[in-house]
Structures are given as structure tokens and as C-alpha cells.
Amino acid sequence: MYQLTYGLFVLTSRLGTKDSGCIINTAGQVTSSPNRISITVNKDNYTHDLVKESGKFNISVLSERADFEIFKHFGFQSGRTADKFSGYEACSRSENGIYYITKGTNAYISASVWQTLDLGSHTMFIADVGDMELLAPDASATYGYYQSSIKPRPEKKASTGKTAWRCTVCGYVYEGEELPADFICPICKHPASDFEKIV
Ligand code: FE
């Protein structure tokens, strides 16, 4: 499955006066006439509920200039408990009134939901493309580029022979012989099963 490639996007939506956004890697064009895209979103994401209720969303395409902070901001906290746009300045509203991200991105696409498909843990939304805009000439970031060049590299340890555990999602390093089975990454909130042993 790791041989599949994906882009990376900030999905944003708005319901009433509530804005939120999250990171997804599942946006793609499905038809050209009419121009439609699909996104697939985990139901745990607050933004999922905003898209489902409002039927509208924006996709901001993350570029190779995106820094880790964007992934932390939109990916490692929940819109249910944090207002991700409170004080966030690198954004603007498109014609549909929804925010798009202006820094670390190269384009945004606005879309209106045409059909939804319940996939269990996720919902797939197929949507008509509305207005869109190129924002920067930078290359789009792939998930592979995120892994190799955006995610922080763990610092090289002195040769103490100490065992440590590295979060494969965000790079956080836990030092210790054994990683507690119920350990949760303090940065990205992924479980112990997403850690790898390093020495
Ligand atoms: Fe992590």
C-alpha cells in the first residue's frame, strides 16, 4: 500500500459561523465534463461534519514550501476542541465564503457536494468544482515528499546505546527500553502501534 502516491491538502468548510479545516490526502479529479472531484474524509474529523451539513468545501493544495507547522496546526489537533482559524492569518475566503490557505499552498479549489457515499469509517464526497485559483508556482507536495522532507528528522543520538521509539507519523522520539502499550504520541496523537524502535 505504501507504493500508492497521494497529494496533501487542507480541507476547509464552514457551517453557519463555524469554520474548520483538516489535512487529507484523498482529493482527486473523477470526471472532466462536468468537472468533478472526490474527497474521502474520516468521520472523526470535525470538518467532515461541516462538509456533510453544508455541502460545500475548499481544497487547498499543499506545496513543497509547506512547513511542518501547517501539518501540526490542521492535522494534529481537533476542530471539535480548537478553533483552528482563531488568530490564523495565512488564509482568505473564496466566493463560497469558506477559508482557503494562502501560505504553503499552490492552489485552491472550491466545490459543492453532488453525491456522498458512506464507506464506514469515512465518507466519500463527490463534488462539482466551482471557482479556483493558482496561488504559487511551487510543486505540489506528495505524501512521499512529506515523509522525506517536511516531517522533522529525529536528532542523531550520541552512541549511548540507548533504545528509543520514533513516531512514524510525526517523528517524535520517546526514549526508553520499552514503549508503554497505551502510549499516545504527544504531538500527533497516534498510538504506540505507529512507533518504530530505533537505537
Ligand atoms: Fe507522532
Low-confidence stretches: none
Beta-strand percentage?
35-45%
Rounded to the nearest angstrom, the distance between the terminal CA atoms is: 27 Å
Q: What's the count of strands?
A: 12
In the residues, how many domains can be counted? 2
Q: How would you spell out the order of helices and strands?
A: EEEEHEHEEEEHEEE
Write out the distinct hetero groups bound to the structure: fe (iii) ion
Structural class: mainly beta
Strand order of the largest sheet: 2-1-5-8-9-4-3
CATH superfamily of the largest domain: Electron Transport, Fmn-binding Protein, Chain A
Architecture (CATH level 2) name of the largest domain = Roll
For this structure, the CATH topology of the largest domain is: Pnp Oxidase, Chain A
Tell me, briefly, the overall form: globular
Largest sheet: 7 strands, antiparallel
Q: Report the CATH C-level class of the largest domain.
A: Mainly Beta
